[in-house]
Write a structure and sequence with these properties.
single chain, 153 residues, mainly alpha, 84% helix
């Protein structure tokens, strides 16, 4: 079970370090509201993962593993990333990109919900669970039952 836990931890760190909307939002909130905001944002992400794990055990994995879902997630996610990349490039060319640090504390409730929404809107979140997370989760469940699932989480 230690191997499953350490594998999950390494995978989680690799995902957390990937540049993207969640990392950007978390850094911004940390600069605005302090270091506690990282725990709040990732709390929202964790709730979404718990819901997804419950759905997987209720049979949602069949949908995630289907070719149509894989293709749809890939196309929609790819188009969204292209749009976001082009928007960032055009904004930087037009010099509309700026970073402002607010001195007021952000609403913790909004940070929590933003963690959920940003994760759910990331096409690679679902794709990761369909390809990597599902296999790891099912392997842990087959080997150690519910305790294995908790080790993955």
């Amino acid at each position: 079970m230690l191997v499953i836990f350490l594998s999950s931890l390494a995978l989680a760190f690799s995902g957390a370090m990937m540049p993207g909307s969640m990392l950007t939002y978390t850094i911004r909130q940390s600069l605005n509201a302090g270091p506690h905001s990282g725990f709040i944002v990732t709390g929202g992400h964790a709730i979404l993962e718990i819901i997804l794990i419950a759905l997987i055990f209720m049979g949602f994995d069949i949908i995630l593993q289907s070719n149509a879902a894989q293709i749809g997630i890939g196309i929609i996610g790819g188009l969204l990333l292209i749009y976001m990349g082009l928007d960032m490039i055009l904004s930087s060319i037009k010099k509309k990109v700026k970073i402002e640090l607010e001195s007021s504390n952000s609403d913790t409730k909004n940070m929590f919900y933003s963690g959920i929404v940003i994760s759910a809107a990331n096409p690679y979140f679902i794709l990761w669970w369909a390809v990597i997370g599902l296999g790891l989760l099912l392997q842990a469940y087959k080997s150690f039952g519910t305790a294995g699932v908790f080790a993955v989480c």
